[in-house]
């Protein structure tokens, strides 16, 4: 299953308007069975904006409005202390974050999936600039990484029973869709299912958690 992560453009507005406190607020993962994404990544600020173009999932083990994230954590890591360094001839997924093996004060994010080259690339040190490294393109992302993590939300189906979803939206739940700010969305690459006692689990990347943000 290939997951495509989209951060809602108005997340920054919600943060600056003090509408979200990730550490203390009720942050949930809502399953969607259908979603006409369109321009919503740029225009949606609240769940009401998303649900105008989407249908919440209904299925075994699922409760309306989704599951509450547990074990939330926020951390900041300076670029040279980032744990994952780029390696030769290694497969990377789009979105992976690395630092040079010899730190230069910046981290780099893969803009596509591919395999790195056999020699070290010449890293740009201007944020936004890119370099081709074999089959991977790295973008200079920032001087540090703000990382949000949580326990993986999961739903256990009954036996018999089935749960299906094609998207997951992460948001702060105020109890009212029109005041519940959206954070990010996972496109699961098609409808995924769990059934007959199996678990439908939204598994975060082990190194990059739920959300990665960069400092310049």
Number of distinct helices: 3
Strand residues, percent:
35-45%
Rg value: 18 Å
Order of helices and strands: EHEHHEEEEEEEEEEEEEEE
Strand count: 17
Kindly state the percentage of residues in helix: under 10%
Low-confidence stretches: none
The outline comes out as globular
Q: How many domains in all?
A: 2
Give the N-terminus to C-terminus distance in angstroms: 32 Å
Estimate the mean pLDDT confidence.
96
Major β-sheet annotation: 6 strands, antiparallel
Structural class: mainly beta
Q: What would you note in describing this structure?
A:
It is a single chain. The chain is mostly beta strands and 216 residues long. The protein folds into two domains: 4-72 and 150-215, no CATH class; 75-146, no CATH class. 7% of the residues lie in helices and 40% in strands. It has three helices and 17 strands. It has helices at 11-16, 40-43, 47-51; strands at residues 4-7, 27-35, 54-56, 67-68, 73-78, 91-92, 97-98, 107-110, 114-115, 130-133, 136-142, 144-149, 154-156, 162-172, 182-195, 199-201, 211-215. The strands form five sheets. Strands 1, 2, 3, 4, 14 and 15 form a six-stranded antiparallel β-sheet that branches. It is globular and about 50 Å long. It starts with a strand and ends with a strand. The model has no long low-confidence stretch (mean pLDDT 96).
């Amino acid at each position: 299953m290939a997951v495509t992560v989209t951060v809602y453009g108005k997340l920054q507005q919600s943060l600056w308007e003090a509408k979200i406190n990730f550490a203390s607020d009720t942050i949930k993962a809502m399953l969607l069975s259908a979603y006409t994404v369109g321009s919503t990544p740029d225009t949606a600020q609240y769940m009401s904006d998303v649900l105008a173009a989407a249908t919440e999932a209904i299925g075994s083990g699922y409760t309306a409005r989704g599951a509450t994230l547990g074990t939330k954590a926020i951390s900041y890591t300076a670029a040279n202390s980032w744990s994952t360094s780029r390696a030769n001839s290694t497969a990377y997924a789009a979105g992976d974050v690395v630092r040079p093996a010899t730190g230069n004060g910046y981290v780099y994010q893969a803009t596509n999936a591919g395999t790195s080259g056999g020699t070290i690339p010449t890293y740009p040190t201007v944020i936004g600039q890119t370099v081709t490294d074999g089959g991977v393109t790295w973008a200079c992302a920032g001087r540090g990484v703000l990382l949000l993590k949580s326990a993986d939300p999961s739903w256990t189906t009954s036996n018999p029973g089935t749960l299906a979803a094609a998207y997951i939206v992460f948001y702060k739940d105020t109890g009212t869709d029109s005041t519940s700010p959206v954070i990010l969305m996972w496109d699961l690459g098609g409808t995924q299912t769990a059934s007959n006692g199996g678990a439908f689990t939204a598994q975060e990347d082990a190194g990059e958690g739920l959300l990665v943000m960069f400092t310049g």
